[in-house]
């Protein structure tokens, strides 16, 4: 596959002319991943679902195939996931509901939103905004590793997306290079696949291991309970390594050997990497989760200071973190918004009276719980003048 260069008008940190595709260890990325669970809907090309016409397959994952869909009236493109309703498969049901709800309420320029969810008696269809530039993985496979300047700008975008999630008590937990898509102009990255996301708290630790082994933090391999954000930091460290090296930092054909390499945390840095980049990756890929750099401190690293875009990171990172700001928490007051309560209920949450009760308790006790965050995100997403955070500068901008 031949993709155009990532940037045209790129100044001081000039992007190298795209290299020829290189065979690297990144080709082995799918080796240890879960096999497809075989759901795939049978909706063939040309079939109509609601106002959408189904076209070709554009991707696939453990949840099945993803199809391109075109809106019959607006001509808008969407990426459609089709999930048959099987009463027995509750894990999958939770995953779909979570992905549909988060895609519906999260509003961030580097997070792919859900545009519509359609339910039929047999199938749930989730339509995501179509991201036209393909997987970042494919880009790297076709063009080789990224120049550090480009990787830095993508990192700024990804850090900001994670900051937004973590502030809302959400951890992605499946952050990997395949879950990062490029926009059609190849200037922005967007995070997809929130099916494994979860809510975290400092007191109730998470236990489930999920996601891709290559990107999994070492503590997950020992089934050590974890808070949440720190596992996303590790995965983002692996993503950074893949971006600037064109291969994964830990690899082996044998799963036990791969485990021990990840747990050792020994990273081989190619000589072409800047020392600033190595320092950042070492901090993000610290095997001890307590010593691993917290997300909000990453912007202090000299590697980011090499770009004037780091100014975008500092204020974002210094805002009350984790947890929601007092302005946003003031949105939690009775009477509660019925549309948002209905949305939560439709996505697997308890009954509306129970939701009201839980929110009222949080309101009187001034507690920030995952439900409070979702409720506030829901209010923001219904707001007539939706406050979508300003997009960070696209990578072609001069700086
Ligand atoms: N919004 C989108 N725009 C364009 N392509 C998309 C979009 N969402 C998904 N795809 C394509 O479909 C592929 C699979 O999507 P996704 O990772 O969300 O599926 P999944 O079944 O949840 O996968 P996983 O195995 O990672 O859990 C992506 O890698 C991408 O190529």
Structure description:
This protein is of the alpha+beta class and 399 residues long. It is built from 13 helices and ten strands. It has a six-stranded antiparallel sheet with strand order 1-2-3-4-6-5, with helices on one face. The chain has a two-stranded antiparallel sheet with strand order 7-10. The chain has a two-stranded antiparallel sheet with strand order 8-9. The radius of gyration is 21 Å and the shape is globular. Bound molecules: adenosine-5'-triphosphate. The site of adenosine-5'-triphosphate has 21 residues, from strand 2, strand 3 and strand 6.
Percent in helix: 25-40%
From the N-terminal CA to the C-terminal CA, the straight-line distance is 31 Å
Major beta sheet summary? 6 strands, antiparallel
Query: Pairing-aware structural class of the strands and helices?
Result: alpha+beta
Which residues form runs of ≥5 with pLDDT under 50?
Answer: 1-41, 318-322, 395-399
Mean pLDDT: 79
User: How many alpha or pi helices?
Assistant: 13
Number of strands: 10
Shape descriptor: globular
Instruction: From the alpha carbons, calculate the radius of gyration and give it in angstroms.
Output: 21 Å
Name the bound molecules: adenosine-5'-triphosphate
Keywords: ATP-binding, Cytoplasm, Kinase, Nucleotide-binding, Serine/threonine-protein kinase, Transferase
EC number: 2.7.11.1
Pfam families: Pkinase
GO biological process, one term: microtubule cytoskeleton organization
């Amino acid at each position: 596959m031949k993709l155009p260069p990532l940037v045209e008008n790129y100044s001081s940190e000039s992007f190298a002319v795209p290299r020829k595709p290189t065979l690297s260890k990144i080709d082995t990325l799918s080796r240890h991943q879960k096999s497809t669970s075989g759901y795939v809907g049978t909706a063939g090309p040309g079939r109509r679902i609601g106002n959408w016409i189904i076209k070709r397959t554009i991707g696939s994952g453990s949840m099945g195939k993803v199809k391109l869909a075109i809106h019959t009236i607006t001509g808008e493109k969407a990426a459609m996931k089709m999930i048959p309703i099987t009463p027995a498969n509750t894990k999958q049901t939770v995953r779909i509901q979570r992905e549909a709800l988060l895609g519906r309420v999260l509003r961030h320029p580097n997070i792919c939103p859900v545009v519509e969810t359609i339910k039929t008696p047999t199938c749930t269809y989730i339509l995501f905004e179509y991201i036209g530039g393909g997987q970042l993985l494919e880009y790297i496979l076709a063009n080789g590793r990224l120049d550090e300047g480009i990787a830095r700008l993508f990192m700024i975008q990804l850090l900001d997306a994670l900051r937004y999630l973590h502030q809302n008590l959400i951890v992605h937990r499946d952050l990997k290079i395949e879950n990062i898509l490029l926009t059609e102009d190849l200037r922005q990255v967007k995070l997809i696949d929130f099916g494994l996301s979860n809510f975290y708290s400092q007191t109730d630790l998470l236990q489930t291991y999920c996601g891709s082994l290559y990107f999994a933090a070492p503590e997950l391999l020992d089934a050590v309970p974890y808070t949440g954000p720190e596992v996303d930091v590790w995965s983002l460290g692996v993503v950074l390594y893949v971006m600037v090296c064109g291969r994964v930092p830990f690899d082996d054909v044998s799963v036990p050997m791969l485990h021990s390499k990840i747990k050792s945390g020994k990273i081989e840095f190619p000589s072409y990497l800047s020392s600033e980049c190595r320092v950042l990756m070492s901090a993000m890929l610290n095997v001890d989760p307590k010593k691993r750099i917290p997300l909000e401190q990453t912007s202090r690293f000299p590697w980011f200071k090499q770009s004037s875009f780091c100014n975008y990171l500092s204020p974002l990172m210094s805002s009350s973190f984790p947890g929601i700001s007092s302005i946003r928490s003031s949105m939690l007051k009775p009477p509660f918004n019925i549309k948002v309560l209905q949305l939560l209920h439709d996505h697997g949450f308890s009954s509306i009276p129970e939701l009201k009760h839980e929110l009222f308790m949080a309101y009187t006790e001034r507690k920030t719980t995952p439900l409070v965050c979702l409720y506030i995100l829901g209010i923001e997403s219904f707001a007539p003048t939706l406050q979508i955070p300003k997009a960070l500068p696209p990578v072609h901008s001069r700086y």
